[in-house]
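[AMINO ACID CHAIN]
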Amino acid sequence: MKSSNVVWHTATITRDHREKQSGHRSVILWFTGLSGAGKSTLAHAVEEHLFQRHCRTFTIDGDNVRHGLCADLGFSSDDRVENIRRVGELAKLFTEAGVLVLTAFISPFQADRDRVRALVPDGEFIEVYCQASLDICEGRDVKGLYKKARSGEIAHFTGISSPYEPPTSPELTVNTGEATIEACVAQVIQYLEAQGII
């Protein structure tokens, strides 16, 4: 339940001030896809490129937030919804700080991604679909999770025992299943340049 005794405090240093100081706009780059699709790899590689260009950046990784901010959540449908809600609010705060925020989350449900999109003005939520087939992702099985899911050790595993809803109209679809990491990074950077974000 929300408290009725809170009042929004307007800051004297605004997002516009921070963006002007940084020399770029602040947006949410939301990387979504199956486990093993390359979300974290691509997000961190894009961040490295942006950092080299002196952009203010931060990457929020799906596994990392479950060590702290979302440590109390499991992987039920309700917990997944809450996980993405919290991350969306956190990402919004980063944009207010003038930061290019990158998030790497399976975020399997379209409604949850749309809910985060609705938190920010049009054009400030950039959905990046890391497209890789289940066969490719399972073949990589970097963390050994698919093997555990197939053997029944992990319940509610996206792509196996829980659904993944591919984005219906993402800003970017990146073929992380077959393209090189360099090509994928270039595609994201070209989009940011074309939109005047950097």
